[in-house]
Write a structure and sequence with these properties.
Helix content is 37%, strand content 20%. The protein has 287 residues and is of the alpha/beta class. The chain folds into two domains: 157 residues, Periplasmic binding protein-like II (D-Maltodextrin-Binding Protein, domain 2, 3-Layer(aba) Sandwich), CATH 3.40.190; 107 residues, Periplasmic binding protein-like II (D-Maltodextrin-Binding Protein, domain 2). The strands form four sheets. A three-stranded antiparallel beta sheet has the order 3-10-4. Helix 2 packs parallel to helix 9.
């Protein structure tokens, strides 16, 4: 968590723009941002930020480990901060300026214990994908919505419909908690990314009886894009312009793509590479 004195030390947007200093708020969000432990600094957003710093020697970069709640609190106050890996949502666009796409990740999935997979059978289509709206109408199956977490529209719509009902629990922005609750059987399913699933399954060293499986969600694309987000306004736009200039010269496979692939389980990694190749073949040639 950022110390209280750090907030008072943040300069005004005008001064910050003149100095071209970027205050990076970094929530501990493995394997996107890894703030501690043996793999510290090896998350795929960490790798991106290291690359950006190396290619913008004219900027002064200040890194402060924080929480997602604090990131958005500072942005809503208009204080000049950035976060290197955000999902773009309509709500966030009210107070965040976003870069061009940075990260390329597999989309949200429904995560369930293997021994409880049959409970979701009625909500899966012929391809095995889950109708999340129908699933969340079943009040006998408990799930979690995390505070400050971004969800794609199809998931967010289902959660909003289920808001206030006994089967959808609102929790803090702690990312490990939902996996512990799922493994212990306190909840029936959660919504998460495949890289997170692999990270926490390994970290928690789950028993065979608690093995996790994940299922695609009807209506989601094959991939999700992540963006740099900075506080909305003249300062934020200026930093985003610098980020975009760097992104335009990274080529077809920047180093954080490999960093993302390494945090996936083998099957997901193969799928990721296939999706990424198809994505790249559809993009204009890099200049």
């Amino acid at each position: 968590m950022v110390a209280a004195t750090a907030l008072s030390a943040l300069p005004s947007q005008c001064a910050q723009a003149e100095q071209l200093t970027v205050n990076w708020q970094m929530p501990d969000y493995p394997p996107v941002i890894i703030a501690s432990g043996p793999a510290k600094g090896q998350g795929y957003a960490d790798v991106f930020l290291q690359y950006l710093m190396a290619h913008t020697p004219d900027l002064k970069h200040v890194v402060e480990y924080s929480s997602m709640s604090r990131v958005f609190g500072l942005m809503k106050q208009g204080l000049p901060v950035c976060e290197p890996s955000l999902l773009k949502t309509a709500e966030r666009e009210q107070y965040v300026d976003f870069s061009d796409p940075v990260e390329f990740v597999l989309p949200h999935h429904v995560v369930v214990r293997a021994d409880r997979l049959n409970r979701l059978h009625a909500y899966r289509n012929a391809a095995g994908a889950v109708d999340i709206a129908r699933l969340m109408r079943d009040t006998s199956l408990i799930s979690i919505r995390q505070e400050k977490r971004g969800y794609p529209p199809v998931v967010l719509d289902a959660m909003q419909e289920a808001a206030g009902k006994k089967n959808l629990i609102q929790t803090s922005d702690d990312d490990e908690g939902p996996f512990r609750q799922l493994a212990s059987g306190w909840v029936d399913y959660i919504i998460s990314y495949p890289d997170e699933i692999n990270w926490f399954a390994n970290k928690l060293n789950l028993a065979a009886a608690s093995r996790l499986v994940y299922l695609p969600i009807v209506g989601l694309p094959d991939y999700t894009l992540g963006y740099v987000g900075c506080t909305k306004g003249p300062w934020g736009k200026k930093i985003i312009q610098r980020v975009n200039k760097v992104l335009a010269r990274t080529g077809k496979r920047p180093p954080w793509i490999d960093a993302e692939a390494r945090w996936l389980d083998p099957e997901a990694a193969r799928h990721y590479e296939d999706i990424y190749r198809r994505y790249q073949s559809s993009q204009p040639s890099a200049k």
